[in-house]
Protein 1
Amino acid sequence: MVTITFPDRETEKRALGFLLGRFSGRVLKSGEHLVPEAALEALADQNISFTVQGKSTYEQQIAAVRDTAPATI
C-alpha cells in the first residue's frame, strides 16, 4: 500500500469516484489515502493529480482499520 494525498477536495472527490469499485483502500483521519500501487498508474491515466507520501507504514494500515468504519475506496 502507498500513502497519497490530493491537492484539493474537488480532486479528492473525483479520485474517490474513480477508485470506487476498482481498488481497495482506506482514508485516514489525516486526509491521507492508502491505496495499492496499481492505483497510482490508474489515477495518472485519468489525469488526476496526487502526491505520493511514500509506502504506508504498518501503523498507518492498523490505524486505518482501527479508527474507521468500513470506508473502502
Protein 2
Amino acid sequence: MKRNILIMILLIGFITVYPQKYISKTGHIWFYGSTPMEVIEAHNHQSASVFDATTGDVQFSLLNNSFEFKNALMQEHFNENYMESVKFPKSTFKGKVSNIGTVDLKKDGVYKVEVTGDLVIHGVTKNKTVPGSIEVKNGIPTAKATFKVTPEEFNIQIPDLVKEKVAKEIEITIDIPYQLYK
C-alpha cells in the first residue's frame, strides 16, 4: 500500500513538472498592406512552430516562397525582387511569452499575452515585443497576434517605380493552432 502511494505521488509530481510542449506544422501567417493604388495580401499555411507552455518559449519558421498571392505576378515579384527568397529562404521568430503564468491550459478561454523575441526577415534580425492572445480549447492552445513592420527596417528595397503601390507598413497576422507534442 505504501509503495502504491509513493508511486502515485511520484507520478503526480512527474506530470506537473513535465514540460508541456506543443507543435504546429500548419500555422497560418499572412500579411496585408494597402495603398490607394494597390492591395497586397498573401497567405502561408505551412509555418512551423513550437511552444513550451511551461517556460513560455515560442518559435516560428516559414519558407518565404510558400506565401500565396491572388496575383501570380505579385508572387513572383515578392520572391525574386523584394524578399529575394533564394538568398533568404526563411523568416523566423524566436521569443518568449513574458506573462505565461497568466495562461491556464486547464481552463478554456482567451488569455492576453505579450511576446518578446527576435524576428528575422530578409536576413535582418529585429527585437520585437508583440501583444497577442492564446486561446485555449480543451487544453489545446492557439496563438494569435497582429503587428506591423516596414520594408525599410528589414532592408527590403522598393524600387521608385512601384513605391506608391507598396504600403509603408505591412500588417502581419499569426494564427497558430497547436497540438500536444508526444
Protein 3
Amino acid sequence: MDKLKILKAVIAELEEELRRKLAAQETAAAGATHIEAKAETKWDTCGLEQSYLARGHAQQFEWLAQQVEELRAFVPLSFSGAPVGPGALVETHMGGEKTLFILLHCGGGTEVWVEGREVLVITPESPVGAALQGKREGDTYSFRAGVEGTIVRVE
C-alpha cells in the first residue's frame, strides 16, 4: 500500500478538522461579542465564558495546524525487514481481526480509507504504538491487560 496516499488522506482529514475548529472558534468569538452576551449583573458571565471557549478553540486550532505542517514535511521510509518506528505501516492480527496501522508522531486516532482499507493512525505514545515500536514482522505484542496480537506485515 502506498504510504504517501495514506499520508495525504490523513492530512486531508486533519485539514477538515481544522476547518471545523476554526468555525467553532469563530462562533464562540461571535457569541462573546454579541449584544446579548453583555453582562446584565455582576454574576452574568455568559460573554466571559464564550471568550474562554473561543480561546480554547483557537489554541486547539493552532496545535492541530502545527501537526498538519509536521505531517506535510514528513517523508515516510521503507520498514521492510526493519523494526517498527515512526512512518511504518503495520498490519496486525489481533482479536480475530486484521488491522492496518500507520505509526506517526501526530494525528493519533485519525482513521482514513485508502485503496479500500481502513488505516488507523497511532502515535508512539499510544498503548498500541508503544507495544509495536521496535517489533518486527512475525513478532507478537501485547497491551492493556492481556490483549495480544501478531505483526503480519511491516512496510
Protein 4
Amino acid sequence: MAVLVYGPPGSGPDQVAAELTALGAPALAWDGLAPQPDPASEDGGALRLVRTVASLEACLARWPDGGQPGAEGWLAARERQRHLFTATRVVLDTTHRDRMAVARALAALPGSWLEGSAHPVVVAESFSFIRGVPLDLDCCLDARPVSNPFWVEELRPFPGTDPRVSSFVLRQEAASRLLDAAEQMVESQLRPEGRSRPLIRLAVGCTGGRHRSVALAEELCRRLLRRGAPAVVWHRDLEV
C-alpha cells in the first residue's frame, strides 16, 4: 500500500505521514514546496491519498523552519496540490491538533481504514463553536439547543464523559432528537454498492466543547457500535 500525505505548509503532512508509518502504513509527505514525491506501491495497488488541512492562521504559525512567507506562498503551495483533490477520500483537519493529538486521533482508528474496507469508520467528534467548525466534517450537529450543564453549579466542573453530566444531557428530548437525526445522517452517507470514503465524520458542537457535545458524541458512538458500525469518538476541545 502506497500512501501520500499532502497539504499546504504548516498543515502537518509530515506529522501525519510519520504517525501512519509508525502504525504500519508507510507514507510519504508533501507540503507543496518541493516536487511531488512518487510513493511506490509494493503490491501494485492504487495510491492512497490523505490530505491535511488547517486554517491559514495555523499554517503560517507552524510554517516549516519558522518562516512565514505569507498567504501568497501558502496559496501557491496549495495550488500545486489541487490536481490531487478529487482523488482524495481522506481529509484530516490539524488546525487544533498538535503532534500528540494527531497521534492519538490516528491511533484510535481501526487499522483497516486505509485498506478499502467495505464499511467506513464513523468518527463522532465533539468541538467548540467558539474555536471554529472542523474543516474535515461530513455532517454537523448543533447541540446548543440542549440545556447546558455549565449553568448547573454542581455539574459545571465535570466533562460530558462524566455519568452525571451525560445523564443530564441525554435525558432531554432535544438530545434524543439530535441523536436520532445523527443516526439518519450517518445512514444517508452510506451507499448500498459500497462506501464512498474510508471515514465518515459527524461533528457535534456546543459552546465550549466540554459538556453537551461531548456527551452526545459519546452516546452517538455507543449507538453506532450497537448497530455493528465501526465507530470511534474524538473530543477536539475537551482538554483545552
